[in-house]
Amino acid sequence: MKHISLLLLLVAFVTSSLSAQINVGKGQISGSIETNNIVYINDSGLNTPAPEGHFGSNTYVKVDYTYKRFSVGLQGEAFLPALQGYEIATPNNDAQFCLGSKYIQWNDKYFTVLAGDVYDQWGNGLIMRTYEDRQLGFNNALEGGRIEVRYNQYFSVRGVYGRPRLYAMRSQCSGSRFYAEYLDDTWVGGADVSISLGDIFRLKNTMLTIEGSYVNRNASHLVPNVDLAAKGLTSRSMNMYSARLNFGYKGFSLRGEYVHKDKDLSLISMEQARCGKAALAEVMFSYKTLSITGTARMLDNMGTLLTFKNQSTGNTLNYLPALTRQYTYMLANLNPYQVNVEGEIGAQGDIYYSLRNPSDRHRYWNFHINYSTYFTLHKNQSVSGERERLWQDLNFDIERQWNRRLKTTFLFSFQEWNPYHGAYHRTYVSNIFVADVQYKFDRKKSLRVEAQYLLSDEYEGDWVAGLVEFNLAPHWSFYVSDMYNIDTTKKNYYSVGASYTLRRTRFQLSFGRNRAGYICSGGVCRFSPEYTGVNLMITSSF
After folding, report:
1. In terms of pLDDT, which residue wins out, 166 or 125?
2. 339 falls within a domain
3. Please, are residues 243 and 212 in contact by the beta-carbon 8 Å criterion?
C-alpha cells in the first residue's frame, strides 16, 4: 500500500497548489485531476466479501494546451486496480493504465479539424453519441478524426471516422511490462448535416432546422462460441440513418426524430438479427411561470454494440437513456428504470407552475407533477404473448420558500416496475414519501434534513431513510445518512462523510455501507455490488 499512499499524497499536493490556468508563452495550459479511492472492509452483515487487496482506485489526469485557434490535449488514466463495479476492471484485479484520450485540433471560422479521440453527439444520440462518464466508468470515444464545415448559422456538416478506443483496445501494466491488446476490429464512420431554415429565410422569433445523419459500423464477426451468420448477420457492415426536425416559436417548441437501422443484434443473446427503428417526439410550452413538456419515444432493436466481443454497459455506439424522472433522493432512486433496447414504447410528461410573491422574492411556491410509463413493443417479448408494462411513475413535489432562511420540499412518488424486464407478467409497486427541510442560519451556515419512507407490500417491503447535512460555506460540508429495510433484510446502509473545498480543489472523505443496485447518470445505469469501505475523492481543475 506504500505506493498507493504516495500517489494520494502527490495528488493532494499537486491539486492543492493549482488554482488557475497556466500561461506558457502566448498559450494557456488548463486541465483537471480526479482520483476516487476506496479501502474495502470485510462486513459480516453483507453477503459479498471485500475484494482481494481491499483497495480500488480510479485516477484521471487531463491536460489541454490552447494557443489561438490551435489546441491539443490528452488524458491519462490509472486503475490500481479499478473500483468494484467498473467495467474497466481486469480479470485478475491487476493495475491498468490507459491513455484515455488525446487530440490535436484546429478551429477556424468556417471549419474545425480534429485528429485523435472524438467525442460527439448527433441529434438526440439515437444513432451516435461518444462520450465519457466517469461515474458509470466508461469511455466510448472513437480513435480517429472529425471534420466540421459551417457557414454562419445557416448550415453545418460534420464527418467522423475511427475505431472505438477503450472497448476495442485495453492497455495494461504487468510488473514493468506495458502492453496493448486489441480486442476487436471495429470501425465507425458517418456524417451529420444541419440546415437552419429559420436563419436562411430570416424568420422572426422562429427557430426551424432540418437535420440528418448517417452512421456505418464495420465490426468483426469472429466471436468465440457465437455463430453470427446463423443469427442472420452475414455482412460486417451495418448502416443507420436519422432524420430530424426542430421547430420553435416564442414559448413553443417541437422536436422530432426518426431512425432506421440495418439488420443487427441489440444483444448477443438475441436468437435472430433484425432491422431496427426509433421515433422520438418532444413538445414544450412555457408562459410566464407555467411550463409544460412532453416526450414520447419508441425503440425497436436499437441497442448498437461497438463490438460483439463485449457485453458491458459502455460497449454502445448510441445513447438510449431512460426518459423518466431522475431522482437524487435515496428511496426514490432505489429501483430506477432500465431501458429495454429490444423494444419499448412510452412517454413522459411534466408540468411546472410557480407562485411568486410580487413584493418579496424570498417567498414563493413551486409545483411540479411528472408522469412516465413504458411498455414492451412486441408481444413476443413476453411469455404471456401480450404487451407488458415495464414502468410507471406518477409523482409530484411542492417546494415552499417561506423566507430568506427556511425552505421546505415535499415529494410523493408512486412507482410500478417490472423485475423481469417485461418477460413475465409481474410488477412491484412502491409508494415513496420525502420531506426535505433546509434552514440557513446566516450566509455561511446552513442545515438540511431529509426524511424518507417507502411503503410497499412487495419485493423487499418497507424502507425508511434519513439524511442530515450541515454546510459551512465556502469550505466545509458534513453529512450523515442511513437507509434501513424494515421488513425483509433488516439491513441498514449508513454513511458519514465530510468535504473541504479550497479554491478549485475539493476533498471528500466518507465511510459507510453501500447497497447493491444501479448507479445512474443521465438516465444510463450500471450495476454496483454491495460493499463497506472508506472512500476518498479528490477533484481539482486549473
Report:
1. 125
2. yes
3. yes
Task: Report helix, strand or coil for 79.
Answer: strand
Residue with cell 434552514: 439
Q: pTM value?
A: 0.90
Number of domains in the chain: 1
User: Is 353 inside a domain boundary?
Assistant: yes
Cβ atoms of residues 134 and 166 within 8 Å: no
Query: Could you tell me the pLDDT band of residue 99, with boundaries at 50, 70 and 90?
Result: confident
In a domain, 369, yes or no: yes
**What range does the domain containing 446 cover?**
327-490
Confidence of residue 176 (pLDDT cuts 50, 70, 90): very low
Measured CA to CA in angstroms, residue 273 lies from 128, 235, 377 at distances of: 20, 12, 16
- C-alpha cell of residue 159: 464527418
> Which triple of cell numbers denotes residue 460?
423487499
Q: Is the peptide bond before 336 cis (omega within 30 degrees of 0)?
A: no
Task: Please count the CA atoms within 13 angstroms of the CA of 366 that sit on its side-chain side.
Answer: 15
| CA 136 from centroid of its chain's CA atoms | 7
C-alpha cell at 389: 408494462
| Helix, strand or coil, per DSSP, at residue 421 | coil
Please report where in the chains the cell 476506496 appears, as a residue: 38
Q: Which of 300, 383, 314, 305 is nearest to 342 (CA)?
A: 300
Distance from C-alpha of 334 to C-alpha of 538, rounded to nearest angstrom: 27
Q: Are 344 and 374 in contact (CB under 8 A)?
A: yes
Assigned domain for 71 exists:
no
Contact (CB, 8 A) for 15 and 32: no
Which positions ≥6 away from 359 have C-beta within 8 Å? Answer: none
Read off the C-alpha cell for 129: 453519441
Inform me whether the pLDDT recorded for 207 exceeds 80.
Answer: yes
Cα 209 to Cα 154, 197, 244, 294: the distances in Å are 9, 6, 8, 20
Find residue 244's DSSP bridge partners.
211, 257
